[in-house]
């Protein structure tokens, strides 16, 4: 059963740092394995591998590798349609002003990063202030209050209490976008937030996850980090796919 999670992450720096640490540990582990292999070379194994490779080539079963260039950049006006496509299903398939939310990302491009593959926009990470005078954000508030009824007062506080200084953290990617890009995107976002010097006490995250028994399975690796750092969170059922 798919779930939507609404989380209030009060310390964005910790999330980015945790993701960076996880990425570094993987790199170090990989380098250690290469060192161990270089200490004990086996020419016999190499010959066998060459023979296997030749056999595969002759049988036409060799595997091809594909290199894809991804470009990280600030969004521009030309990215509007790509952003709108990424944000269309943000409210679990419910119709809302996705064009307005895409415009909002472009308006706050100094704290937004997109991923381009060729001319296609395949991912976005952005922070936008919660302003209920903006139709798309008002629709988001109604969506959360409708589906997370027991937490409606908290949602109302985050959206309408100016002293909470809450902003919305968006992180949307196409399903075939490599998850490895998450640490780099959030590191870039952290740098952008520091440069912009925005007054933010809380970040509101709306993310999708799945439950299998008592286990919560996150669709994006960064969602687990947000959940661990959140000062408040709730979950509710979303539409069946």
TrEMBL record:
Region (Disordered): 1-62
Acidic residues bias: start-end ranges: 32-62
One GO CC annotation: nucleus
Annotated family: Belongs to the BCP1 family.
Protein name: Uncharacterized protein
């Amino acid at each position: 059963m798919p779930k939507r999670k609404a989380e209030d992450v009060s310390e964005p720096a910790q999330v980015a740092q945790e993701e960076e640490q996880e990425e570094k540990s993987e790199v170090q582990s990989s380098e250690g394995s290469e060192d161990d292999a270089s200490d004990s070379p086996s020419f016999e194994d190499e010959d066998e591998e060459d023979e296997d490779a030749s056999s595969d080539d002759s049988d036409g079963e060799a595997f091809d590798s594909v290199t894809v260039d991804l470009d990280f950049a600030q969004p521009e006006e030309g990215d509007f349609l790509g952003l709108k496509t990424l944000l269309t299903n943000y409210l679990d398939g419910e119709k809302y002003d996705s064009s307005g939310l895409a415009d909002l990302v472009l308006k706050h491009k100094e704290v937004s990063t997109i991923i381009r593959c060729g001319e296609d926009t395949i991912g976005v990470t952005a922070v936008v202030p919660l302003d209920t005078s903006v139709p798309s954000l008002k629709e988001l508030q109604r969506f959360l209050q409708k589906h997370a009824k027991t937490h409606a007062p908290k949602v109302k506080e985050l959206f309408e209490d100016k002293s909470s200084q809450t902003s919305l953290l968006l992180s949307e990617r196409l399903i075939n976008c490599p998850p490895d890009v998450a640490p780099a995107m959030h590191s870039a976002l952290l740098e952008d937030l520091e440069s912009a010097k925005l007054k933010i006490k809380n970040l509101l995250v709306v993310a999708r996850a799945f439950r299998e028994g008592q286990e919560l399975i996150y669709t994006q690796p960064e969602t687990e980090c947000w959940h661990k750092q959140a000062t408040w969170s709730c979950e509710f059922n979303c539409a069946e796919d």
